[in-house]
Amino acid sequence: MFPVLYKTLPVNNLYEILTGKIVRLSTLLIVFIGVASCWPGEGSGVAGFRVALLTPGPISDQSWNASAFTGLMRIRDSLTAQTSHIQVKTPADFEENFRQYGASGYSLVIGHGFEFQDAAARVASSYPTTVFVTTGGETVRPNVAALSFAFDEPSFLAGMAAAAASKTGIIACVGGTELPPVKASFAAFVAGAQLMRPDVRVIVTYLGNWDDTGAGKEQALALIQRRVDVIFQNADAAGLGVFQAAREREGVLVIGSNTNQNTLAPASTIGSVVVDVPHAFLLVAKEVHAKTFTARVIRLGTRDNVVRWEPGPVFGQRVARAQQQRIDSVQTVMRSGSFTTPPSPSPR
Amino acid sequence: MAEMVLVGNFLEAAVRSATPLGFAALGALIAERAGVVNIGIEGSLVCGAFASFVVAGLLGPEVGFLAGGLAGMSLGLVFAVFVVALRAQQIIVGAAVSMLGLGLTASLHRIAVSSTGPGAPISTFLPLQVPVLSGIPVFGQAFISQPVTTYLLYALFPLVGWGLYRTVGGIALRAVGEQPSAAVSAGHSPARIQCAALLACGFLSGLGGATLVVAQTGIYSDGMSAGRGYIAMAIVALGRWTPRGVAAGALIFGGVSALQFLTQAVNWRVPYTIVLATPYLLTLVAMAALRGTRVAPAALGQTLNRP
After folding, report:
1. Domains, chain B, ranges and CATH?
2. Residue A345 pLDDT > 80
């Protein structure tokens, strides 16, 4: 019976079918799965107030992007908003996803980074009922606002702490890419370090990306071999590699960025330069929700308790009492709102 | 003396950076010698990194390393099913597999992070000193003060060379890459050989990704493969499709990324972006210089006819 069945089956046709449609369908399917797994997840909530977030990197970075996602969740919980998040890579993606959310009638779309400004400015006029906010930058349109953090203030304090804690007198910065806010933060770090210790040497380095954790570690090791003993990292997921280098090398200290990273390598972290992104997001979202929003650059600093220097576990051991007091006194000036970063001689 | 330390440090970093590239490029070499362009390697790398992190956290770096290889291999299997069994276009499937790997790991990681928080760093393989050899100035520091995974890679290069050139299977594999019909008339099945090559390619790429985690950073972050899969393909071209050339190519690309870190650390006023671009320029120059001389497998990238 079987041989007969075998003969009667249109094997050739079957093969054609298999190699024709199924291939095309299956290829489509796997592309679809690939794309789908990058697609935004829709949160639940009352329809009406909808908020979307675009992050330039993974929200698992325990830094810049993680804090944004926490902020989105806080908006969801506080304002019972419907939320959506997507991770985007290229400027073309920025614009495309801004348009997607604008066209879907989202009330608030946040592009989490300085790099989203141009895309926001380009798409905003097409979706006048949507408010576009970029985290960082200065771009303002009728429905485009920018959150501008005085990240330089705690960076300045971090520089003071780093210079005080260093034994070799050589400290360093590791950044992702040369975005203006990152450069400004590093410049303030250098200025703070020089205020604390005029003979300090600060080496400023960039990885060229924000994802390559291996590169972050290698850059840290290269610096450590040049007798650097305090490293200020601002490289998101790649910066996690800097913590790993510090864990492995005795006596090397790290300063974290964006979120409180003091628990990542507790034995070797002096402190973190923290931006309370969730607080800032909620601030804007509340305005948009209450329809009191006006387009502007929303500047938030130490005074607003949105940025702060968060001393870590080894701060007390490595920074002498007198130096701690100097840091405190500068912080007091910052709280009063009258602090301006002294212009620093070019780093290096 | 100070210069020697500098050179030693630099070479040590170069070998470290070259190791994941070496694994992946060796995998790419095997696939391409069998006539298959697999740009899905990036997906295998990142899956290897993720799987090794998860498994190493539970069962230690040795098992984690192996799990990385297997994860890479399973993605290699997906690629093989589409390209060999269903004869779909290699580049399209490769791109899809890369996206699948990156998307899948990011999604799984996100689920894991939201349920249990970010994973703690795992314990990694530490540099393994070899008596006498590690003591050789510069050379010992650079090549023989590495984690055990790097020594495995050292052994794999001659092993793959032997396999490709001195065994029946290897000769058949190269025949499939050059002239599939000749392999068929010699009684070999190109489909079976390409499948085996792609599984090996996926496994080695997975090991490359695992190296990033279990022998270097101890942590996983999304997209940490950071384009190494594509660099692996450039290395194969630069290395003229030979194991020896691929070893040298991996070392060059590793050296260049180490140079990026070094130039910034010692404050040489060379923009790091230029340093980063060098190996690609080098690959272009190498390809241009090799124009006319046929070094790539003749049937590379071709979809084979039905057997």
Report:
1. 2-125+157-289 (1.10.3470)
2. no
Note the helical H segments in chain A.
Answer: 2-8, 11-17, 23-36, 64-79, 91-103, 117-124, 152-165, 180-196, 213-225, 236-248, 277-289, 315-318, 321-336
For A:220-279, CB contacts with B below 8 A are 221-223, 225-226, 228, 237-238, 240-241, 244, 247
- Model pTM score: 0.86
| B82 neighbourhood in chain A, CB within 8 Å | 23, 26-27, 30
Distance of CA A239 to the CA centre of its chain: 11
pLDDT for the residue A51: 96
Residue B268, both tokens = 């040489």
Non-local CB neighbours of B294 within 8 Å, separated by 6+ positions: none
- Burial (CB count within 10 angstroms: exposed 0-12, middle 13-18, buried 19+), residue A264: buried
Quickly state the pLDDT bin for A60 (edges 50, 70, 90): confident
Find which of B91, B221, B269 to mutate to test the A interface (most A CBs within 10 Å of its CB). Answer: B221
Per-residue pLDDT tens over the stretch B153-170? 999 999 999 999 999 999
The conformation of residue A347, written as its DSSP 8-state character, comes to P
User: A113 near A134, Cβ under 8 Å?
Assistant: yes
Q: Flag whether the ipTM exceeds 0.85.
A: yes
Alpha carbon distance B214, B126 (integer Å): 9
Q: Tokens standing for A255?
A: 């300063």
